[in-house]
Every structure is written in C-alpha cells, then in structure tokens.
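Hey team,

Filing this mostly as a record. A colleague (T.K.) asked me to run one chain through the structure pipeline before their review meeting, and I want the input and output archived in the tracker in case anyone asks later how it was produced. No errors, nothing strange. Just documentation.

Input sequence:
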Amino acid sequence: MIPWLTTALALASPPIPGELLPTPERLPFPDIAADNLLGEDRAYPGWYERRTSLVLLVWTREQQRVANTWLTHVDALTQAEPSLSIVEHPVVAPFYRLIKGRVDGWMRGGIPSDAARARTVTLFTGAQGFADQLGIDDRSTISALLVDANGRVAKQWRGPANDTVMADVVASVQTLAAEMTP
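Output structure:
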C-alpha cells in the first residue's frame, strides 16, 4: 500500500477502545541496549531499576496517534505517582539501524520537547520476536506495559487510553508502590 495512503487511512479510522489484557505471570522485560532521542544511553533492565515504568510499545508509525492518547495523560500520571517513569518505544525493523541517525533525526523533528525526546527510546529489533518475549500476540495497535521496579511486566493494556484505562493504570501503579514499601 502507498505509505501516505496508509497514514491517511490510519488517521481517518476511529481508534479501538483501550483494553486491559490478562497478565498471568510477571514476565521479565527483555534485556536491551539503546539510546533516547537526546543520545543518552539506556540499558535494560538497569535504567528501569527501582522505578515503576509505564512502557508504550509503538509497533508502526501509524500507531503514533494511538500512543498520543496515552501521552496526553503523562502529567497527570506523574503527579499521581512521582516515581513513575514513562517510556515510549517505537519498535523499528533492525535493518533501519543502518540509517539510525536519520531515523532518530526524523523523530526528533516531530518531537519538539526535550522531555518527550528523553522518554523516547527507539528499539531497532525484530518486532515479532520482541513481542513474543513479552507474551504480546497482537501488534495491530500499541501495547502499554506496567513494568515493576524489578523489571517484570505487572500489567498490560493495548489500544488507546481513556478515563477507565487511566484509572486502572493509576490504581495499578499505587498497588505496585504499596508492594515495594517495606
């Protein structure tokens, strides 16, 4: 399909409502090394360590509109739980690593805020294999993961954020914070 047509269709179609997914066991978030759009190194699980993180996995460029429904809640989420880290991971095919500087430049061009650039860490990896490691079987929309301070996935959602989903996120973050309190 023509890239501009794919984007136009994605923007015209209504997003599906956010959906809480069952998370029967706390799978570990995969070990990876990457850098954010400010060029700062981010190694996993090290930089997640001791913080609860909301991780947004964006599988295709067209899904950015859905990711933005989550990002509009960033301030409210971090006010409700100041220790919460929010990270956005565009997942890009590994062969694009050859033009990583250009890909990151395109993304920086569309993200004017340094705070947003700091939380955006592009993953140049095979999407299917990465999704499999996290137990994600549907990449038709974004995945949002709540990763506990031990680097394990405590909860998953997919699709756009809404008030119901955000209330569940806040409650889940508070539950994890209580679990971590000695």
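Quick notes for T.K.: The two ends are 54 Å apart (CA to CA). Helices lie at 3-12, 64-71, 74-80, 100-110, 114-119, 127-133, 163-180.
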